[in-house]
Design a protein that fits this description.
Length: about 375
């Protein structure tokens, strides 16, 4: 894979507004207590041997930079190759949730022209899955395709996920929003570097479109083929899918599939002590992170780092992010509590399984 480079687009990934993404991009959303969503895209690329990765930044990029730094945890702090922070352009006029906006790519043309790589693997940061990209690239070369897209059969309706029309493994159309049984695009694809540069010229008048929107009339001459992925996939575009995908990982079988020993998901290191379960605490089917202090009751929940659940407090079917304190007698149920919050003693934060409550990040 020394002749392949990677690029992750960390912008244009959520159309639905949410308190969770008011101060951070989707790429840096905390996940499973200790990860960020961008960790999955980064780890998929570096696990197959790619050592040059570009990241197209949104305007509110601070939290991504704070998390990734120089790329040390992903072995990307190197003299040759490494992690490249690339600027995103002004928002285009696409109304369909573009994730590979041509304007972003053309704006960073130098990243591609200065490389000697044969191919580029693109990804976004709003899907959760662990894929062996070595196999995807080998299939791409063996098929002789111009572009190979990572796909999966949709199991439900999702208006935010892109779908392909496919005949005999070849893409012949694209539309936005999937229904059950359609071929959904996992926002990851392989393309020849020279073909990508040629497309910058082909589609220069429509650089406000997503790459696959611009290609709609050219699927006859550009051979775009699918690679079907049969592992666990969770698209994260709104609070419902974010909450559900976190809760999925309380299932040991899904967790083992997403975190196999031979393809680890890497993240920023934190020097925090182990969690401490005090006498009288009760924890059931939950993910507890380092630095947590549990005095009360936690069930079917995910706690970020340095969370304190005081005696008499209850957390159930919820996500409590880093640095929160749940005071004595407080109850958190069917909720997402963003980082730095203090839930006062004797109070309740309660949503429903169908509509979880979000307590926005503390401004203090």
């Amino acid at each position: 894979m020394e002749k392949v480079i990677g690029l992750i687009t960390c912008n244009y990934s959520a159309k639905e507004t949410s308190p969770l993404t008011e101060s951070r991009p989707v790429a840096s959303l905390p996940y499973l207590g200790r990860y960020r969503l961008v960790d999955f895209a980064l780890s998929n690329l570096v696990n197959c041997g790619i050592r040059t990765v570009g990241m197209v930044m949104p305007y509110n990029y601070r939290s991504i930079i704070d998390h990734t730094g120089s790329g040390k945890e992903w072995d990307l702090d190197r003299k040759n190759g490494g992690l490249f922070i690339l600027p995103g352009s002004a928002f285009g006029t696409s109304r369909t949730g573009a994730r590979f906006l041509l304007r972003d790519l053309v704006h960073n043309k130098a990243y591609f022209t200065r490389s000697t790589a044969d191919a580029v693997i693109f990804s976004t940061a709003n899907f959760v899955y662990n894929v062996d990209l070595d196999k995807v690239y080998e299939a791409h070369k063996a098929s002789g395709a111009d572009i190979t897209v990572l796909t999966k059969t949709a199991s439900e309706k999702d208006p935010d996920v892109t779908a392909f029309d496919v005949e005999d493994g070849r893409v012949c159309g694209v539309h936005h929003g999937t229904t059950f049984g359609e071929t959904m695009f996992l926002d990851c694809f392989v393309i020849g570097r020279q073909l990508l540069l040629d497309m910058f010229d082909w589609y220069a008048p429509t650089d406000y479109l997503d790459l696959f929107e611009a290609m709609v009339g050219d699927f006859g001459r550009v051979n775009v083929r699918t690679y079907d992925f049969d592992g666990y996939v969770a698209p994260v575009f709104n609070k419902r899918t974010y909450f559900r995908s976190n809760m999925d990982l309380l299932d040991p079988q899904i967790s083992a599939e997403l975190f196999p020993e031979d393809r680890s998901i890497k993240t920023k290191a934190h020097d925090t002590p182990p969690a401490k379960f005090e006498i009288g605490s009760r924890v059931l089917n939950s993910r507890i992170s380092s630095g947590d202090r549990i005095y009360g009751s936690v069930s079917d929940s995910i706690l970020g780092r340095n969370v304190i659940v005081e005696a008499g407090a209850t957390v159930r079917n919820s996500i409590v992010m880093q640095g929160c304190v749940v005071k004595s007698g407080a109850r958190v149920e069917n909720a997402i509590v963003d980082r730095g919050n203090v839930v006062p003693a004797g109070t309740e934060l309660r949503g429903t399984p169908e509509d979880v409550l979000i307590k926005e990040k503390s401004r203090d």
